[in-house]
Structures are given as structure tokens and as C-alpha cells.
Amino acid sequence: MIIAVDKGTAYTKTSELISFKSTIRKYSDNELNFSQDKIIVEYDKKKYVIGSNGKTNTNLFKSKHDETKLLVLTAIALSYPEESRIQTHLVTGLPIGRIGYEKDDMKRLFQYTHNAITVNNQKYIVDIGVAEIFPEGASSFYYLEDIDSGLIIDIGGLSIDVALYTRGRKLEKYSTYRLGVLPLYREIANYLGSKYSLTLNEWNVEEILKEGLFIDGNKVDLDISHIVNAYVQQIIQALEFDYNIPQIQKIFLTGGGGEFLYSYIKKIIPRSQLMNNPRFTNVLTYKLLGEVLFNG
Q: Which residues belong to CATH 3.30.420.40 in the chain?
């Protein structure tokens, strides 16, 4: 068995199309769960609530995060809810700018480990065999069929991973920028909070972007294009500094942030394209590469 897990700053996703917020907080004995929708996890003699109100880590050093293993193991368990003992190889990723520094540490975190975890009162044993680490964003290029070259722009919650492939699918250059959408969501939260006397955070903004904002029972115009456009200009300037954007014929956006910013970026770079299933592109590519690697 092979499973791929993409532990992002905003969401943790698996190749089985499981997705939940990468938030963690300690479980309280008086915790209310009337709707039974919380992910309650017991691991290493501690109890947590995952994917609800909580903290998410905002630095890029994933192999150093205490919660990385907790989130990945939870994701594996949720991917196979009927299996009490899960034996699998694991494929996951690191920001492309960090993989040279952290790949070995990330492998040691998971490879050949025996793990006991309880998720929503169901006990699991997760035995991980070989763990392989691929670069975020850059790997997504192999999700494209019949494309020989191009620029991949993977916009996540905290970072943007960029990879330039030249003819023959040769990785020519890559970069990681701390320009993901969570800081943008915070700007929007501050703007809307001030305008309408609300207390909002970045997660509220994500919901507002999907459902709209209602004030006194009426849906209001968000009027946030000036904020988003200014942020997109920062992204474009960073890209233009490092890459010859006018010369690159094929430009692909992916990631949850790529899905949100696509229409704004396309106005500036009309030939840019949004990849299919952008929120899961990384993890689905990890799975494809893992099958080639492990199955020969």
C-alpha cells in the first residue's frame, strides 16, 4: 500500500482525497461536540482537537514541527477508517526551497516507524515502511500530460513554490517565496472587520469568500479587489525578479491559493492556466511518483 500526504500550513490532504484544516489545540475535558464533527485525536499520551479552532504553524521548517507527525498520522487514519492496522509506504513533501536541508530529517520522522494513534475513539496502528520526500510544486509538473516545459506556481497557505521546467522536462530553476494566501486573508479580515465592526480571522475570510458576507441579513459587496490586486502585484514582482516571465510560454497555477488568485493573475498573465483539481495536485502527483518508485 502507498499513501501520499500533503501537510500544508492551511490544510492537510491525502491521495484518498481526505482534507482537513492543519490546526491543532489541546483537548479540554469539558469539550462540547454536539455535531460530532470534531477530529479528536489521542497520540503519545496526549489528546488533541484537530481541524477546528486552533493554531497552525507559520514557519517553513516542516520536519521540525511537533505537529507534522501528528497531522500526517491522523490523515492516514482518516483515509482508511475501516482498517485498524494500516501498513503503508508514505510519500510526502517539503517546500522546494527547503528540501535540500530537511529531506533526511523528514524521512527519519516517518520511515520504518510503528505508531499507535486513536482518532475519534477508534484505535489504529500505523506501520510506515519506506518514506519518500518530494518537492512541493515542482512535483506537480508530472501531473500534466503531454507538456514538455513550463512554469509551475504552487500557491499555498504560507508559501509559494515555483519551478521552471525547460525542454525535455528538465528542472532548470526553483524558488520558494513567503507569499501564501494566509497573510492576504488576514489583510482582508482586518479590512472587513474594521469596515463592519466584526472580529474576523483568516479562516472566517475563507468561508466569506465561498459563501459571501451578510450584514443585518443582507449580502454585501466585499469590495476587496484593491487588497487582492496589491498582493498579487507583490507575487508578480517576485516572479519577474527571478524569472523571465515574458519568455515563458506555459504557466500553470496550482494549490488552494492558486485557485483563489487565478482570475486575478490571469488578468496580468493571460496565458496562465489553472491545473485540474488544484487543491490536490501535489498529493495526487506524490502518489503517482510513489507508485513508479515503489512498484518499479
A: 2-135+283-295, 145-274
CB 125 within 8 A of CB 114: yes
CATH classification (class only), 2-135+283-295: alpha beta
Domain range 145-274, CATH architecture: 2-Layer Sandwich (3.30)
Higher pLDDT, 55 or 148: 148
Digit-coded pLDDT (tens) for 133-160: 998 888 888 888 889 999 999 999 989 9
Contact between 27 and 48 under an 8 Å Cβ cutoff? The reply is yes
Percent of the chain with pLDDT over 70: 93
> What mean pLDDT is predicted for residues 115-121?
95
Q: Which three cell numbers stand for residue 151?
A: 512554469
Distances (CA, A) of 120 to 33, 69, 77, 234: 11, 17, 10, 42
Q: Which segments within the chain are labelled E, that is strand?
A: 2-7, 11-14, 19-21, 24-26, 39-43, 46-50, 85-94, 113-119, 122-135, 150-155, 160-166, 170-177, 213-215, 218-220, 251-254, 272-274
For residue 216, give the 3-state DSSP assignment. Answer: coil
